Backbone:
């Protein structure tokens, strides 16, 4: 999910059909409104609308900066029918995942406790129960987490300027794995020094394609936040 700047009260950000920010509603297809809790500025509810003011998604956060979901997240079809509702407690699945077809018939009923599936049922369009599969299937790097670690360690080059001046630290990079597995929208959200930041971005941008992620069996974009550590060897 893309993160617009927070202001107290309400803040609106506009997006085109590719979910890239645009400056005015004239170029927009969607818009997001942030509602900040007056008693706790960390608590934010993010709502996404189309230009017909149809509510498409609602996500409550207990800590917006850390993207900690807390409460019931909902998504709707364009016809106004609820697509799914997901219960979170401090960033963990806790409660129900309820999914529906566009005609309102249930497609999934999952129960979670502390991020663990307790029981779950999936139904086809005729209401017949079918084999269960996970609601969220995260993207995977070729070779898994070990493959990712090996790729980063073998690709990273310590920039000469920072190396010669003893500059070290951790660059935090945010990026999106698209529906086709491509890496996109790479940006530094916590930098150390310009050449280190640019090297971290280069490594992430040059990643091979991932196996894309799924949400309820449908290909979807996923955002990742990854630290890239630059550490000097000290005698």
Residues:
């Amino acid at each position: 999910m893309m993160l617009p700047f927070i202001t107290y009260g309400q803040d609106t950000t506009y997006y085109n059909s590719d979910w890239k920010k645009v400056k005015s509603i004239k170029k927009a297809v969607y818009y997001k409104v942030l509602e900040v809790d007056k008693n706790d500025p960390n608590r934010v509810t993010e709502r996404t609308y189309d230009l017909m003011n149809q509510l498409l998604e609602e996500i409550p956060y207990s800590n917006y900066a850390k993207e900690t979901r807390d409460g019931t997240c909902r998504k709707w079809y364009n016809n106004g029918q609820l697509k799914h509702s997901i219960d979170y407690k401090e960033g963990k699945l806790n409660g129900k995942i309820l999914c529906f077809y566009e005609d309102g018939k249930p497609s999934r009923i999952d129960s979670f406790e502390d991020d663990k599936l307790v029981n779950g049922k999936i139904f086809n369009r005729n209401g017949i129960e079918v084999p269960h599969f996970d609601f969220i299937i995260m993207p995977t790097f070729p070779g898994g987490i070990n493959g990712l670690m090996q790729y980063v360690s073998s690709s990273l080059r310590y920039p000469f300027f920072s190396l010669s001046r003893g500059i070290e630290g951790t660059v935090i990079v945010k990026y999106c794995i698209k529906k086709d597995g491509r890496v996109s929208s790479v940006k530094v959200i916590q930098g150390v020094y310009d050449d280190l930041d640019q090297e971290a971005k280069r490594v992430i941008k040059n990643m091979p394609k991932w196996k894309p992620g799924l949400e309820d069996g449908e290909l979807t974009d996923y955002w990742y936040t990854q630290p890239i550590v630059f550490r000097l060897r000290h005698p």
User: Anything to note?
Assistant: Residues 144-155 form the longest helix (12 residues). The chain has a mean pLDDT of 91.
